[in-house]
Fold this protein.
Amino acid sequence: MIDVDSGCIFAIAKVEKINSPTMNEDIKFVIEEAEEGMSNAISHLDKEFQKIRAGKASPAMLEGVRVDYYGSITPIDQVSNINTPDPRQIIVQPWEKAMLVPIEKAILAANLGFNPQNNGEVLRITVPPLTEERRRDLVKKAKAEVENAKVTIRNIRRAANDSGKKLEKDGVPEDEVKQLEKEIQNLTDTFISKVDKLFDAKEKDIMTV
């Protein structure tokens, strides 16, 4: 199940293993390393999708904002509390009042399209409803992240297959290398499908008014 609103992935499809007890340990390692890499690509995509919000206020909208905290560049959530009292507002409460202006500057510098209102105590950000054009722009941004994820997965496939060829040169039986290639392709197909499903869900989330 995918919780699109929170951006969390509760399950990642697993490929049925065709490993045999007698399979070369180096082959098993290549398969496990490839699956881990592809899983990381999915996790990265999920994080990028969390940053693409369809107009509903969320603390994740400020993820990536870095604040100059007395000369140290620090994530915004390490110098303030961030909450959303309603779907259209983000409230940033600095832990130190002196950080109000630096945090305000950091948000503006991040080019998120927000204009925080500083009342001397907190920063109040109003999240405007998205226009149709803006929603389509966000879908394009999501597609770009999807393509990046697919490129990563395919690069992992290529690297795994290259490792298999090297193992064959080192004496690993050809049938085991063929088995490796088959499983790597199964992994690739599964994770590419997962990426497509995540995008379909995210596109629906973005385009739903």
Summary: The chain is about 50% helix and 15% strand.
